[in-house]
Amino acid sequence: MRYLYDYDAGKEKDLSYFRQYPQEVVDFRRRLEAAAGVVICTPEYAHGVPGSLKNAIDWTVATCEFSHKPTVLITASTDGQYGHKALLETLRVIEAENIDRLQLLIPFARTKINGEGRITDGDTLAAVKEIMEEFVRTCYRIA
């Protein structure tokens, strides 16, 4: 995602803009299209969605790579509720498959995940396992 150019919705009416997508965008869309599903695990940033993540998703709105694609959203942050809610709504709008069942908010993440990235809180670990099992079931159901 870090190599994607900024999406400019104002250029949507210019057909030449759509004929000249940057190669990074084309590659990103192809990877999404080929994937059985998508896992998004993100922090909240200033009560919102990190800009690079929102930009990547914006590049897919017109071409529908997320439409009916099983997608997990895990927000792990200090609070996380604002960014999680915003991103959840975006994923609903672009028709990510089973998003209401495939989402998890992990507030106070630093107390539940250690410096090596291991989940140390039993309830959080159980919730992550449950959501990932549901993700796999959804991927098989869609395939």
Summarize the structure.
By secondary structure, the chain is α/β, with parallel strands linked by helices. Helices cover 41% and strands 10% of the residues.
Question: What does this protein look like?
Answer:
- The protein has 143 residues and is of the alpha/beta class.
- The protein has one domain (9-142): Flavodoxin domain (Rossmann fold, 3-Layer(aba) Sandwich).
- 41% of the residues lie in helices and 10% in strands.
- The chain contains five helices and three strands, in the order H-H-E-H-E-H-E-H.
- The chain has a three-stranded parallel β-sheet with strand order 1-2-3, sandwiched between helices.
- Helix 3 (51-58) links the parallel strand 1 and strand 2.
- It is globular, with a radius of gyration of 16 Å.
- The two termini are 26 Å apart.
Poorly predicted runs: none
Number of helices: 5
Structural class: alpha/beta
Radius of gyration: 16 Å
Helix-strand string: HHEHEHEH
Second-tier CATH architecture = 3-Layer(aba) Sandwich
The strands making up the biggest β-sheet line up spatially as 1-2-3
Q: Examine the coordinates and then state which fold CATH places here, giving the name of the CATH topology.
A: Rossmann fold
* Shape label: globular
| Name of the CATH superfamily | Flavodoxin domain
Oligomer: single chain
The main sheet comes to:
3 strands, parallel
Structural domain count = 1
Average pLDDT over all residues: 90
